[in-house]
Fold HesB/IscA family protein.
Amino acid sequence: MSSTTANADADAAVEVTEEAAEQALSLLDGEGLDTSEAGLRLFVQQGGCAGLSYGMRFDHEPEPDDTVTEHEGLRIFVDPASMRYIEGSVLDFEGGLQGAGFHVENPNIVSECGCGESFRT
């Protein structure tokens, strides 16, 4: 898995599997976004029965204080507040009969809700 960073804080940043990168790049392309500038923003927000949940969206460019990494051609943007909760995580894409989607494997989690949609660190 190739990875480059745009700032020094990315040492413990989020990793991305090849499958997740391919899926996200396909979605970015479908939105007509320039993958050399645009990327996937991964963030943590208050919510869910365990207290925190993940959010993802496409952004045209990173914010000045974001940690920016690149994996398999996909740029990932993470703001400093979210990085505290998800550093060292792996973004994966799971497909199957129960539905397909992105999944964050977070080593910082101390508990998750029963449905797996929210967590606590």
Q: What stands out?
A: The chain has one domain: 3-120. The domain at 3-120 is CATH 2.60.300.12 (Hypothetical Protein Aq_1857; Chain: A;).
